[in-house]
Amino acid sequence: MRLSTTIFALAFALGVLPTLAKTVQAAPKTVVTIKPVHSLVAGVMAGIAEPTLLIDGAGSPHDHALKPSEARALAAADLVVWVGPEIEGFFIKPAKSLAKDTVVLTLLERSELTRLPARQGGAWSRHRHDDHDEKHGDEKHGDEKHGDEKHGDEKHGDEKHADEHHGKHEDKHGHGEAGDDFDAHVWLDPANARAIVEVLAETLATMDPDNAAAYRANASRMTHELKALEREIAGLVAPSRGTPYVVFHDAYQYFEARFGMNAVGSISISPDRRPSAKRLVEIRRRIVEAGAECIFTEPQFPPRLAETAREGTPARLGVLDPLGVETKAGPSAYGEMMRGLALGLAACLEG
Predict the structure, then answer these.
(1) What pLDDT is attached to residue 121?
(2) Within its chain, how far is the Cα of 205 from the centroid?
(3) 90, HSE (Cβ side, Cα atoms, 13 Å)
(4) May I ask the CATH class of domain 10-349?
(5) What percentage of the chain has pLDDT greater than the value 70?
(6) Cα dihedral: 51, 57, 62, 64 (round 10)
(7) Three-state SS string across 320-336, please?
(8) Which residues fall within 8 angstroms of residue 193, CB to CB, at 6 or more apart?
(9) pTM of the full predicted structure?
(10) Distances (CA, A) of 307 to 189, 207, 279, 298, 315
(11) Helix axes 212-237, 190-207, angle to 10 degrees
C-alpha cells in the first residue's frame, strides 16, 4: 500500500499523471449517427477515446426518436458526425439545439468524397418528400421519365466544409443543400470510406493537437485495411457482375458503381413509405423485362413486399443490410457490413 502511494506521488511529481489527464480530457466528445460511419470514427479514435453511437439495432435513421441519454450525449458533444438530412432526417431539429462551439461534420457536403447524382425516372423514381399520396397507396407518376439515367462523378457548386457550420443546418422539407443533388449513401463505396477516414483524422487532429499523430497513424492503418477490403469484395462479387437484380430501395448505387453490379430497379421509392399497388405492378413488369435473378429486401423491413413483387416471376429472394443492423458496433463493423453485402449478393445471384 505504501509502495503504491509512493509510486503515485512520484508519478504526480514528475508530471506523468497530469499529462495523461490532459490527453484524456483533450479528446473530443464525439457522437455519430449511424453504425457504418461510427465504425470508421471508432477506428480513427482507437486507443484515444470511444465515440458514441446514436442509432443501433434496427432503428431507422429517417425518423429515429432520441432517448434522453442520446439527447444528453448530443448536448455534451464537441463533434457530431452525420451523413446529411437525406439519411438522418431525425437529426435536423436536434442540430439546431447544439452548443455553438459544437463542430458538425456533414459528410455529404465534403468534396473529398465521390458523390453520385441521385437516380431519377422509371425504375429509379426520385424520392418525393412533398408527395403524401403515396402513403395512402396512390402514387404519382407524372414526373417520371422512362429509362435509367446514369451519371459520372460530377461535382455541383461550391462546397461548404461542415466544420464551419458549428451546428447550423438548412431545413428545406427534410433536405440539406447537398441532399437534393446527390445520392446520400456515400459510405457504401470503400474509396469514400477512405476519404471519410482522412477527413475525420484531420478534423480530430485540428480539434485535439495532442493526439494528432495518433489519429493520423490510425487513419493510415485503416486506409491499407480498406484497400484490402475493396480487393476482397471485388473477388467475392466477380462471378455476379452483370447479373440483373432488384433492391428494396435505391441505397446501393455507390456499391454498384465501385464493383460493377447491375441493379435494375427498386421496389420502394422511399424506405419509409409503402409502395402503391401500381408501383408493385410496375416493378414486377421490370423484373420480368430485365430478367432479374433476385429481389433483395432489408432486415429492418418485412419481406412481404418483396414476396408480393416477385409473384409470377422466377426471381429469388435475398437480403441486403446497408446499415449493418445485425453487426456489432465498433471498428470492425464497417468491414463486416460490406462483406455481408458482397456475400448476400453472391449467395442469391449465383443461385
Answers:
(1) 63
(2) 23
(3) 17
(4) alpha beta
(5) 74
(6) -80
(7) CCCCCCCCCCCCCHHHH
(8) 40, 187, 226, 334
(9) 0.78
(10) 28, 49, 14, 12, 10
(11) 170
Q: Which three cell numbers stand for residue 336?
A: 463486416
Number of alpha carbons in the 13 Å side-chain half-sphere of residue 264: 20
Q: Rounded to whole angstroms, how far apart are CA atoms 162 and 172?
A: 17
Residue type, 128: R
Cα distance between residue 108 and residue 88, in whole Å: 11
Closest CA to 310 of 348, 253, 255: 348
Q: Fill in the DSSP letter of residue 119.
A: P
Q: At what angle do helices 333-349 and 212-237 cross, to 10 degrees?
A: 10
Q: H-type helices in the chain, by residue range?
A: 2-13, 16-26, 35-44, 68-76, 92-95, 190-207, 212-237, 253-259, 277-290, 304-309, 333-349
Please choose, from the candidates 299, 345, 291, the residue with its C-alpha nearest in 3D space to the C-alpha of residue 324: 299
C-alpha span between 258 and 252 (Å, rounded): 10
Task: Quick: pLDDT tens for 66-90.
Answer: 999 999 999 999 999 999 999 999 9
Whole-number mean pLDDT of the chain?
81
What is the grid cell recorded at 177?
A: 443543400
Q: Quick one: cell of 308?
A: 408480393
Contact 105, 200 (CB under 8 A): yes
Q: What is the pLDDT of residues 94-129, one digit of tens each?
A: 999 999 999 999 999 999 999 999 987 656 654 433
Rounded distance, CA 188 to CA 91, Å?
21
Domain boundaries, the chain: 10-349
Q: How many whole angstroms separate alpha carbon 163 and alpha carbon 266?
A: 34
CB neighbour list of residue 86: distance below 8 Å, 6 or more residues apart: 108, 127, 174, 175, 176, 179, 184
Closest CA to 321 of 304, 305, 336: 336
pLDDT in tens, 262-283: 999 988 766 667 777 888 888 8
**Intra-chain end-to-end CA distance of the chain, in Å:** 67
What is the mean predicted confidence (pLDDT) over 197-225?
98
What number is the average pLDDT over the span 290-314?
87
Instruction: Find out whether 322 and 188 touch, Cβ atoms under 8 Å.
Output: yes
